[in-house]
Amino acid sequence: MSPFTLALLLVFIYIAGPTLVRPKQLKNYRKQPPGPSSLPIIGHLHLLGNLPHRVLKSLAKKYGPIMSLRFGRVPAIVVSSPEAAQLVLKTHDAVFANRPKLQATELMSYGSTGLATTEYGPYWRNIRKFCISELLSPSKIQSYAPLRKHELGLLVESIKRAATAHDVVDLSLLTSDFMESITFKMILGRSKDDRFDMQRLIEQFMRD
């Protein structure tokens, strides 16, 4: 297929796409919240640019606090007002609780069994209950207050030394090391171990 023929085909799909959908699918298509017109294959990815948060803000002003977008072949509903967010996250949270199944989460979280990746159901409710009662309870968090205070003091002292020496400070790196050190001591009960580079693993996971 020549590039010219392919371009004509994409334009045809873009213009006549909704009319090519079967009646049942067309009915569901019309139920979607308002949103800008999408391109074939890429959807609305071309609209995001380098500052997607600003683009989403301007689109919300035009199409409302609940709008539909499509990132490639993946449809998405964008919520951008406190009232709509409360409906999604609190009033009807069970309806929106499922997570998409991705190959990355299957590989990185033991078959999508983590709290943030597993499907909504009895298993998710059990591990959520366990996390709240055993890991994130007020008493548990308060018990680590001296540790956080100590690590924060070390961070401030390192910044003061750098300022005295007129050295350049990479706040992103210092903050990452600060959070990593607290995480190691809270979860593993020990200082950072060079055999487990958590920061590198997180960066690799987000990149992949």
UniProtKB/TrEMBL annotation:
Its cofactor is heme. Its main location: membrane. The keyword Oxidoreductase applies. Residues 1-23 form the signal peptide. One of its GO terms (molecular function) is iron ion binding. Gene3D superfamilies: Cytochrome P450 (1.10.630.10). It is found in: Membrane. SUPFAM superfamilies: Cytochrome P450 (SSF48264). It comes from the Eukaryota. Keywords: Heme, Iron, Membrane, Metal-binding, Monooxygenase, Oxidoreductase, Signal. InterPro entries: Cyt_P450, Cyt_P450_E_grp-I, Cyt_P450_sf. One of its GO terms (cellular component) is membrane. Belongs to the cytochrome P450 family. This is Cytochrome P450. It comes from Quillaja saponaria (Soap bark tree).
